[in-house]
Design goal:
Layout (H helix, E strand, L loop, with lengths): L4 E6 L4 H13 L3 E4 L10 H13 L5 E6 L3 H7 L7 E3 L3 H9 L5 E5 L5 H13 L6 H12 L3
The protein binds D-ribose.
Length: about 150
């Protein structure tokens, strides 16, 4: 069976967590597409949000993980793309809800704000929870429509 590929990208504030989550995903049987950054050198988080948006648009992965120090900057940057629904997650409830109601295709963590075990747990929930659809479907469609304004 073909492994699903999960794309990961971070700035320097999230690079350690990115490595931990890549290892975690590998252990769960996923293929990992690492879009950088690779080290502690200071870089600009919007560049890695662009790399994620392009990878998703090109079909290299259907789902992704973004990380910066707080998770905030890279969330803002990623959500400027109409096909990206990036959810900054702090707990299991958010990880579940961003899939059930928002059909998030990117989960975002703050590398300096969330513990690694909680992030792994949230990532597992994000990946295993299906979108509920129904009354939420037209709301999610409106997100992309608004992105065209
Ligand atoms: C980098 O120091 C930091 O500003 C960045 O990782 C992120 O937290 C921005 O929102």
């Amino acid at each position: 069976m073909t492994k699903e590929t999960i794309a990961l990208a971070s700035d320097h504030g999230g690079v350690e967590m990115k490595m931990l989550l890549a290892e975690h995903l590998g252990g769960k049987g996923y293929a990992v597409l690492d879009l950088g950054t690779d080290g502690a050198q200071s870089v600009d988080y919007p560049d890695f949000a662009v790399a994620m948006a392009e990878a998703l648009a090109q079909g290299k992965a259907a789902r992704g993980v973004l990380i910066c120090g707080s998770g905030i900057g890279i969330s803002i940057a990623a959500n400027r793309f109409a096909h990206v629904r990036a959810a900054l997650i702090h707990d299991a409830y958010g990880a579940r809800m961003c899939r059930l109601h928002n059909d998030a295709n990117v989960v975002v963590f703050g590398g300096r704000t969330i513990g690694s075990e909680i992030a792994k747990d949230c990532l597992d929930i994000f990946l295993s929870t299906q979108f509920e659809g129904g009354r939420h479907a037209h709301r999610v469609a409106k997100l992309a429509e608004n992105g065209q304004r």
